[in-house]
Design brief:
Helices cover 69% and strands 3% of the residues. The chain is mainly α and 383 residues long. It has one domain. Helix 1 (3-41) packs antiparallel against helix 2 (44-65).
């Protein structure tokens, strides 16, 4: 078996494994969402979740079938649309929980533009990294120039306010610039800027000292600033190794706020136990490894950067969510991909999966492997 054929088989197997991970997370997430919300909403949130999942699946299939090169052609336009939508949110957006993040249409339909901005940012940075491949080692092209548009986008998200998404996308920007060839010293500077930004965020919050101490000692502050995280930790403690049983959890009944979104991992811990919780972590790890394998074997630099960006986006968001729920990180409000309730997030996470599969499919062409739209020709694809 030749090297090209071996690589092609590896990409195909990685793609099947990635799709299996997403399918497993979506199925398990639907079950846990119904369990988390059945006492307050019945089946209403589950039905909406399934509708969004179906729409996301349709979009993922279309993106997987199309050549991802069309995203390169429209990368700047997609980024500009994201910035415009984020600007419009301050005029037409609806305030929920002291934040203006949503466009609301009717009683049941809402759209969160920051979710679209996540994918648009990945595509834009992949385009920028490929276009300026020979210049990324300089301070100007490798750090200063990309930070101007990215800073505008992050500033709009920060002002909603959405601090969790800001931190996530700032970290993702640093990773993609580093993969594009930026200097390590520039990456260190970005990290220091991020730490300074977090310190500023913390200092501008109400009673910052109490909030910091609440994170360090949630039991002492369980009646005020650490109420939500303390309830989450109680859920994990109640679940133990094997859990209390599906649907049998108690913490979700008027004790744990946002149990169907940001804190659904706590419901999993209580009802399904530590072993299943670790299983969820392992599935996300497999997803990240397969996504990075697809990225590494992409046919071109743009495909590599975009696939790596999508993989890190989903992996970092999952990591931050689970770290917050277990009090490893302060609470900043990010959903758990494919599992938490949230239509906009699910739609664009599924779109990201479609992009990953598209990169894999067109890499298979490069290695002479057949893909669904290539049924009569075995010619190698020339990028």
């Amino acid at each position: 078996m030749g090297d090209l054929e071996s690589k092609g088989i590896g990409i195909r197997q990685a793609t099947y494994l990635l799709i299996s991970c997403v399918t497993l997370l979506l199925t398990f997430g639907s079950v846990m969402l119904y369990s988390a919300s059945m006492h307050q909403e019945g089946s209403f949130l589950l039905i909406k979740h399934l509708v969004y999942a179906s729409m996301g699946l349709g979009g993922a299939v279309i993106l997987a079938w199309k050549d991802y090169q069309w995203l390169r052609k429209h990368a700047v336009a997609l980024f500009m649309v994201a910035v415009v939508l984020l600007g419009f949110i301050f005029v037409f957006g609806e305030v929920r929980n002291n934040a203006r993040r949503w466009f609301v249409f009717g009683d049941v339909i809402s759209f969160q533009p920051s979710e679209f901005a996540k994918l648009a940012l990945v595509i834009f940075l992949a385009y920028y990294g490929e276009k300026n491949a020979e210049k990324m080692g300089s301070w100007g092209h490798g750090l200063l120039l990309p930070l101007i548009p990215v800073g505008l986008l992050l500033g709009l998200i920060f002002s909603e306010p959405d601090r969790g998404t800001t931190v996530l996308l700032a970290a993702l920007t640093g990773v993609l610039l580093l993969l594009s060839g930026s200097r390590w010293s520039g990456f260190v500077i970005l990290f220091l800027i991020g730490v300074a930004g977090l310190a500023y965020i913390f200092s501008t919050q109400a009673t910052p000292g109490e909030r910091f101490m609440a994170w360090l000692d949630p039991e002492k502050h369980k009646e005020d600033h650490a109420y939500q995280i303390w309830q989450s930790l109680l859920a994990f403690g109640s679940g133990g190794l094997e859990g209390m049983g599906l649907g049998s959890g108690r913490i979700k009944i008027n004790f744990l706020p946002e149990q169907q979104t940001d804190f659904i991992f706590a419901v999993i811990g209580e009802e399904m136990g530590l072993l299943i919780s670790i299983g969820v972590v392992i599935v996300f790890m497999i997803f990240v490894l397969t996504g990075l394998f697809i990225a590494w074997n992409a046919r071109d630099r743009f495909g590599f950067l975009m696939a790596a960006g999508v993989t890190f986006l989903i992996g970092l968001q999952a990591l931050i969510n689970m770290a917050v729920v277990t009090n490893t990180l302060p609470n900043k409000g990010l959903s758990l991909p494919f599992i938490s309730y949230g239509g906009s997030n699910l739609l664009f996470m599924m779109a990201g999966v479609g992009v990953l599969v598209s990169v894999a499919n067109h890499s298979l062409k490069t290695y002479g492997m057949k893909v669904p739209e290539q049924v009569e020709s075995n010619e190698l694809f020339q990028p």
